[in-house]
Every structure is written in structure tokens, then in C-alpha cells.
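Module 6 notes. Inverse folding takes a fixed backbone as the condition and produces residue identities as the prediction. Think of it as a translation problem where the source language is geometry and the target language is the twenty amino acids. Below is one complete input and output pair. Work through it position by position during the lab.
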């Protein structure tokens, strides 16, 4: 019984307060990016394969981040740190490449233009996620 309480207490910091908002926003982005990638890959793959594969990668990263944040234990916190870091790197690299060589990206991805099509949330979200994880993982025993 004591082990059960400890496990639940370990999850509380990641999923409480702003952590709940992060899980919700990541969940929305996971659904949106997965839906967009599925449609793009199934109907227009030949038009912009790189862009559509990057949309699928973004979707996978959002799904992993959502699940890791929702689970909330210490191991999942580490997975969330990695997925948020990959997301931030993806947004920065794809955002820069999409602006530098727009011909390589004939169609938008979640990360192109630093997430401009999504109100720059893809750029801000991993930063907020990493800050939240840094704060809460320090406090978790």
C-alpha cells in the first residue's frame, strides 16, 4: 500500500497545475498532427514526400510526449525530456530549412516556418515543456 501511494505521489508533480495544461495541449497537437499527416501521406505523398514524412515525425513526437507527460512517473519524465528536446530541435531545424529553401518544402508541415501555421505554438510548447519538466523532476524524489 505504501508503494502505491509513493508511485502516485511521484506522478502528481508532472500532472498537476500547468502539467495538466501541457498534457492537454500536447494531446491536441498529437491528434492534429496525426490527422494531418495521415491525410497528407494517403492523398498527396507524391507532391511533397519530405514535408509529409516530417509531419508524420512531428505527430509521433507529439504522441510520445503526450503519453510520457500523462504517465508522469520519473522514467516517463525522462522520456518527455527527450521528446520535447527532439521536438524543439525539429522545429528549429525544419523551421530554418523551410525558410531557407522553400522549394524543398512545397507544402507546410507542423514545424515549417517555426510552426507559423499553428500560431508558433510548436516553437513555444517544447520550451514550456522542458521548463516544466526541469522544475518538477528536480522536486520528484
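Target side of the pair, the amino acids:
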Amino acid at each position: 500500500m505504501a508503494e502505491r501511494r509513493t508511485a502516485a505521489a511521484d506522478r502528481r508533480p508532472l500532472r498537476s497545475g500547468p502539467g495538466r495544461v501541457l498534457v492537454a495541449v500536447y494531446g491536441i497537437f498529437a491528434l492534429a498532427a496525426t490527422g494531418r499527416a495521415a491525410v497528407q501521406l494517403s492523398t498527396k505523398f507524391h507532391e511533397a514526400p519530405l514535408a509529409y514524412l516530417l509531419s508524420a515525425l512531428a505527430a509521433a513526437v507529439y504522441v510520445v510526449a503526450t503519453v510520457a507527460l500523462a504517465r508522469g512517473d520519473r522514467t516517463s519524465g525522462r522520456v518527455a525530456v527527450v521528446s520535447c528536446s527532439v521536438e524543439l530541435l525539429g522545429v528549429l531545424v525544419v523551421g530554418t530549412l523551410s525558410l531557407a529553401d522553400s522549394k524543398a518544402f512545397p507544402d507546410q508541415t507542423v514545424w515549417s516556418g517555426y510552426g507559423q501555421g499553428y500560431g508558433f505554438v510548436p516553437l513555444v510548447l517544447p520550451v514550456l515543456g522542458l521548463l516544466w519538466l526541469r522544475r518538477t523532476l528536480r522536486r520528484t524524489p
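Reference fact for the lab report: Helices lie at 2-15, 18-43, 49-71, 74-100, 121-139.
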